[in-house]
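Action item from last meeting closed. Structure (626 res):
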């Protein structure tokens, strides 16, 4: 019944995260997180196969002509670029309005002559109260000349106004109109019937052997190579400026030098506007890199470069991600219910950082896009739920456990305080000692399955037994922390062989608990299992309470490492469930039998700690063999 309740809780938590992720405000936050990945990845190397010709503010100054420019300018541009060896010429300028007939004819003839020119069209959407109407605006030169190639230049934007996707096609009735970048790729080798080879599937869009993963049914993610200015720009006027074209002011015949330098040789050239007055700029993931928006021609350049390199971004399949999220929910929920709140908090912070690192690594190395913030959101929700549940459990369980623990106080400590009342002062002293941590495994689960009376009875029997053993072996019970018993050897009275007595006590506790387990089985009671951890070293010992409440205890790294060593019983299966540190082993290696486990990095320590499993006392084993 409890397993079904647990799984149902995991389903509910997963569903909550998924529902939140569909909210616009959350999606916008997720977009910003994805943009940060581009920022951290930084500018990527490009092939330099794509160059840009811009109509900038400098272009207007050089030509001293108002917008729009005469169509014969573009015809000359086409001729000059082909002279310079350009492989393909792409216009991100919609020649949608009629001009002088002779100018349009010159432009069309230049395009037909060279056969490597692609013009721009667009789809205009008119929204009314009752319906949405889409109108196709073709380039003027394409209406009468079927040999003219063209593609749509509509740029889709996300809800936050940023461009992260590229339009592949638009469907008007039964007709598919392909985008500028798609037409450019499909006709790069001058194939005329390329539409027959197009394959449109739910997950990908294929041009012959080029498979483009989809972001939506009509778009693909743009794998941006950098901020604005990543691709090389050349001025429109400079490409026109040959010996036959005279600029009004400074006529340098720049094109001849460009041709000589081979700037456009075998290049894909994209022509468009970057003048601020023409407002052809968009927000992209690299906006915050230099607070500079990206011209539309460079958005096309990023897509064309991506097609050239086949360096596509692919989104993690939604169903697969939900499955991953659900599995993580079960794991994280279980961990948070088992661990204490502080341990859960630390582990959850680590898990959040690890999840972000893994998702970022997949983005950088595999071009895989996964939701970034859903897993951290899940962990935070589970952490809150775990804290609330833990608080309610602790409040219920500690009510009867506290009464049992209050009985156990070492007589040695009382005698020491009577003899030396000055030790009641708020102070501490560095002492060498051994600390023994004894902990009941999965006690919270045990307490949940049994009523308080049964739990108290078995606790009383267990605690009475191990407290007696600790005292008999010259140790003191420092404190009871829930179901954990912390005992010290070597304080308050000096004990030269404190490590040996701690080991002996642990073995006797193990032996006695085994006897108790046999007894409980005979009585048909559920048994408890324990784990022990021992560490030796220096610690601050003394009255470390307040001026009104005295608390004789020990603190320091030795105590902390001892606690972490005890926790290793959850990881390593040993004969007696007793693990000791290398410090303890060195002090008693001639008197005990122990087996090396390995070096481990315990929580809170950067250096590894060698740990051993305690098997027995050498003298006692010899007696048994005889």
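Sequence:
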């Amino acid at each position: 019944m409890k397993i079904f309740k647990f799984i149902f809780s995991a389903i509910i938590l997963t569903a909550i995260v998924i529902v939140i992720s569909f909210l616009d405000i959350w999606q916008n936050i997720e977009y910003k997180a994805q943009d940060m990945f581009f920022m951290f990845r930084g500018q990527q190397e490009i092939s330099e196969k794509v160059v840009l010709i811009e109509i900038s503010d400098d272009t207007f100054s050089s030509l001293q002509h108002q917008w729009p420019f005469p169509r014969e300018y573009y015809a000359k541009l086409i001729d000059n670029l082909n002279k310079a060896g350009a492989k393909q010429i792409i216009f991100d300028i919609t020649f949608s309005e009629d001009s002088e007939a002779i100018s349009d004819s010159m432009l069309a003839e230049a395009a037909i002559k060279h056969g490597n020119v692609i013009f721009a069209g667009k789809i205009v959407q008119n929204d009314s109260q009752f319906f949405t109407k889409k109108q196709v605006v073709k380039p003027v030169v394409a209406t009468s000349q079927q040999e003219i190639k063209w593609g749509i230049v509509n740029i889709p934007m996300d809800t936050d106004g940023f461009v992260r996707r590229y339009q592949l096609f638009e469907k008007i009735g039964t007709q598919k109109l392909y985008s500028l970048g798609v037409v450019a790729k499909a006709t790069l080798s001058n194939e005329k019937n390329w539409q027959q080879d197009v394959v449109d599937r739910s997950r990908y869009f294929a041009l012959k052997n080029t498979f483009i993963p989809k972001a939506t049914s009509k778009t693909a993610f743009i794998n941006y190579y950098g901020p604005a200015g990543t691709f090389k720009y050349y001025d429109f006027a400079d490409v026109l400026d040959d010996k036959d074209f005279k600029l009004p002011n400074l006529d340098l015949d720049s094109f001849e030098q460009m041709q000589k330098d081979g700037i456009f040789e075998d290049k894909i050239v994209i022509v468009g506007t970057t003048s601020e007055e023409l407002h052809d700029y968009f927000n992209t993931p690299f906006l915050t890199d230099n607070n500079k928006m990206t011209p539309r021609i460079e958005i096309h350049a990023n897509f064309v470069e991506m097609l050239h390199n086949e360096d596509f971004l692919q989104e993690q399949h939604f169903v697969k991600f939900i499955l991953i999220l659900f599995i993580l929910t079960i794991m994280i929920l279980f961990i948070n219910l088992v661990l204490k709140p502080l341990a859960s908090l630390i582990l959850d912070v680590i898990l959040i950082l690890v999840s972000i690192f893994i998702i970022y690594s997949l983005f950088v190395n595999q071009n895989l896009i996964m939701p970034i913030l859903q897993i951290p959101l899940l962990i935070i929700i589970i952490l809150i739920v775990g804290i609330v549940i833990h608080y309610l459990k602790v409040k219920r369980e500690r009510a009867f456990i506290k009464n049992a623990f209050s009985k156990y106080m070492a007589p040695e400590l009382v005698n020491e305080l009577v003899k030396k009342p000055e030790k009641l002062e708020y102070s501490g002293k560095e002492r060498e000692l051994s600390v023994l941590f004894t902990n009941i495994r999965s006690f919270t689960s045990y307490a949940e399955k049994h009523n308080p009376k049964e739990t108290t009875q078995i606790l009383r029997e267990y605690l009475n037994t191990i407290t007696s053993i600790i005292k008999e072996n010259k140790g003191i019970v420092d404190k009871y922390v829930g179901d954990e018993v912390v005992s010290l050897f070597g304080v308050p009275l000096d004990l030269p062989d404190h490590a040996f007595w701690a080991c002996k006590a642990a073995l006797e506790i193990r032996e006695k608990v085994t006897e108790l387990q046999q007894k409980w089985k005979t009585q048909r009671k559920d048994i408890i299992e324990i784990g022990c951890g021992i560490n030796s070293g220096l610690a601050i010992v003394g009255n470390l309470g307040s001026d009104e409440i005295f608390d004789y205890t020990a603190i320091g790294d030795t105590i902390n490492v001892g606690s972490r060593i005890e926790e290793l019983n959850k990881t390593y299966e040993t004969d007696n469930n007793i693990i000791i540190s290398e410090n303890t082993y060195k002090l008693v290696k001639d008197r005990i039998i122990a087996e090396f486990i390995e070096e481990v990095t315990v929580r809170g320590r950067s250096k590894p700690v060698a740990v051993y499993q305690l098997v027995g006392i050498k003298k006692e084993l010899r007696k048994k063999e005889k």
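Note appended to the action item: The longest helix spans residues 374-405.
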